[in-house]
Design goal:
By secondary structure, the chain is of the alpha/beta class. The protein has 13 helices and seven strands.
Length: about 300
C-alpha cells in the first residue's frame, strides 16, 4: 500500500443488526487467506481480494457508479464496517455469496484484503442465499426483485407459497412482482431505471394489449403523469373495450331474428314449442320439451329414431 493511503482497519464494530445476529457466536480470527483452510468455516477472516471471485448468481445487474465511489471513499476513511459473505472453494479461493457492492468499493478504495464471513454452500444454496439476501436488503429495483423471485421459483424449485415464506412476503406481493415480467421490455427498462414507479407499472399491467400499454406508457413519460392519473386512463380503456360495437350489435340483432324464425319453423314441424338459444360466439342448444311418453314417441317418429 502506498504511503498516502490510510491503514485499513481489519474490523470495526457495528456489523448491523441482521448480520450481527447471523454471526452470533462466530469468532473473528483475524487470519488472512494464506492461513485459512477449507475446514475453518463459520468464521470471519481477512481475505485477499485477489482470491475472491464474484458471485455468478448475483441478482443485481446494475451498480450505480457514483454510489460506488461514495462507498469507496467511506471505506478509505472508516474501513469495512460489515464483512462480506463468501464460500471457500479451495485453499486460497473464495466466491462471493453477498456483499458485492462492498467488494467492488473495497477494490476501488485500494484495499488488498477484506473481512469476510466464511461459510459452506453448494451452487443451489449459493443462488438461494444470494437472491434472498439481496431481496431482504430492499435495495434492488422492482424488476431485479421480480427476476430474483422468478429465479427462486424456477432454479430453486420453490412454489409461490414457499417463496413467500422464504423472503418474508405475502403471496400476493410476490405475485404482483412476478406480473411485472409480463410487461413489454420498454416498460420494464423504464421501471428498472426509475423512470416510472411500481404503481405506474401495476396499473399498466391491467391493459390487455401491448400496443395500448405502450401508448399510455409513452404518455406517462412525456407528461409525467401521476399513478392516480394512469389508473384513470386504464379504467377508461377498460370501459371503452366493454362497450359493444354498433355494427356488431346490428349483426347480433339480425341473428336473434333468424333464431326466432328457426324456433317458429321447428315448433310448427314438431307440434310443440321448440327453444333455440345461442351465445355471441354462435354456440347454443335446441330444446324439444314433451309432457308425456306418447308425445316423446311422436317426436322420435318425426326424427326417424
Amino acid at each position: 500500500m502506498s504511503d498516502n493511503k490510510k491503514p485499513v482497519p481489519t474490523r470495526k464494530g457495528g456489523l448491523g443488526r441482521g448480520l450481527g445476529s447471523l454471526l452470533e457466536g462466530n469468532k473473528y480470527t483475524g487470519k488472512t487467506a494464506e492461513s485459512t483452510t477449507v475446514n475453518e468455516v463459520n468464521t470471519i477472516a481477512d481475505i485477499a481480494i485477489e482470491h475472491i471471485q464474484t458471485n455468478p448468481y448475483q441478482p443485481r445487474t446494475h451498480f450505480d457508479q457514483t454510489a460506488l465511489e461514495e462507498l469507496a471513499e467511506s471505506i478509505r476513511i472508516q474501513g469495512i464496517i460489515q464483512p462480506i459473505t463468501v464460500r471457500q472453494l479451495d485453499q486460497n479461493s473464495f466466491q462471493l455469496i453477498s456483499g458485492e457492492r462492498r467488494y467492488q468499493a473495497a477494490k476501488m478504495a485500494g484495499l488488498t484484503t477484506i473481512p469476510a464471513y466464511i461459510r459452506k454452500a453448494d451452487d443451489q444454496q449459493m443462488l438461494e442465499m444470494a437472491l434472498i439476501e439481496n431481496i431482504q436488503r430492499e435495495n434492488l429495483n422492482a424488476i431485479e426483485i421480480a427476476l430474483s423471485y422468478q429465479r427462486l421459483l424456477t432454479e430453486c424449485s420453490l412454489k409461490q407459497e414457499e417463496l413467500g415464506d422464504r423472503v418474508g412476503k405475502k403471496r400476493t406481493t410476490v405475485t404482483n412482482y412476478l406480473r411485472l415480467l409480463k410487461l413489454p421490455p420498454d416498460i420494464q427498462i423504464a421501471l428498472r431505471d426509475n423512470v416510472i414507479s411500481m404503481g405506474h407499472a401495476r396499473a399498466l399491467i391491467n391493459i390487455d394489449t401491448i400496443d395500448k400499454q405502450l401508448e399510455i406508457f409513452r404518455k406517462v413519460v412525456a407528461e409525467e403523469l401521476s399513478v392516480r392519473k394512469v389508473e384513470e386512463l386504464v379504467r377508461n380503456v377498460q370501459n371503452a373495450s366493454k362497450k359493444p360495437d354498433p355494427q356488431q350489435k346490428l349483426v347480433f340483432n339480425r341473428y336473434d331474428e333468424e333464431l326466432k324464425g328457426v324456433e317458429k319453423k321447428l315448433s310448427s314441424q314438431f307440434g310443440t314449442k321448440i327453444l333455440v338459444k345461442a351465445n355471441n360466439d354462435g354456440k347454443g342448444e335446441i330444446k324439444i320439451p314433451f309432457v308425456s311418453v306418447d308425445e316423446l314417441n311422436r317426436i322420435l317418429e318425426i326424427l326417424n329414431y
